[in-house]
């Protein structure tokens, strides 16, 4: 979900700060942020499944939490420097399916659609099937398949 940004967006991104936490979780679970992705972002809990990690990473994109995205990205595929495009507003997440990724698995996939808008433009959709693995007992994002 990290997308290339224009030079102007990169400049604006440097000045951008992380968004204030919302009441409702951006991952579209229907739960409060403080009871859903908030504890994961704050380091008070670990994702119990690949889907939970994917949802928390979507929320991190929506809130601009680059630190969490970097911490939950496998070191072999993580970019050296991650910049989020401040023009992008993530608006909705749909989980389409999962394979593996449970408490007794070491890998899993999550297919999803992430809805977003750039600078108030029309809604766009990014579809991805993401691969996750356990690293040191914790789920991490590996790559898009």
TrEMBL record:
<feature type="region of interest" description="Disordered">
    <location>
        <begin position="1"/>
        <end position="21"/>
    </location>
</feature>
<protein>
    <recommendedName>
        <fullName>UPF0225 protein KDL01_11830</fullName>
    </recommendedName>
</protein>
<feature type="domain" description="YchJ-like middle NTF2-like">
    <location>
        <begin position="49"/>
        <end position="143"/>
    </location>
</feature>
<dbReference type="InterPro" id="IPR048469">
    <property type="entry name" value="YchJ-like_M"/>
</dbReference>
<comment type="similarity">
    <text>Belongs to the UPF0225 family.</text>
</comment>
<dbReference type="InterPro" id="IPR032710">
    <property type="entry name" value="NTF2-like_dom_sf"/>
</dbReference>
<dbReference type="InterPro" id="IPR023006">
    <property type="entry name" value="YchJ-like"/>
</dbReference>
<dbReference type="Pfam" id="PF17775">
    <property type="entry name" value="YchJ_M-like"/>
</dbReference>
């Amino acid at each position: 979900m990290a997308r290339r940004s224009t030079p102007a967006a990169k400049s604006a991104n440097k000045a951008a700060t992380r968004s204030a936490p919302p009441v409702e979780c951006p991952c579209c679970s229907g739960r409060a942020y403080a009871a859903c992705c908030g504890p994961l972002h704050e380091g008070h809990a670990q994702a119990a499944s690949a889907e939970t990690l994917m949802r928390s990473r979507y929320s991190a994109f929506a809130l601009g939490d680059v630190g969490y995205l970097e911490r939950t990205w496998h070191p072999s595929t993580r970019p050296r420097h991650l910049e989020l495009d401040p023009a992008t507003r993530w608006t909705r997440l749909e989980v389409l399916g999962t394979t593996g990724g449970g408490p007794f698995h070491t890998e899993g996939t999550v297919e999803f659609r992430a809805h977003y808008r750039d600078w108030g433009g029309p809604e766009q959709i990014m579809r991805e099937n993401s691969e996750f693995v356990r690293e040191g007992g914790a789920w991490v994002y590996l790559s898009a398949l």
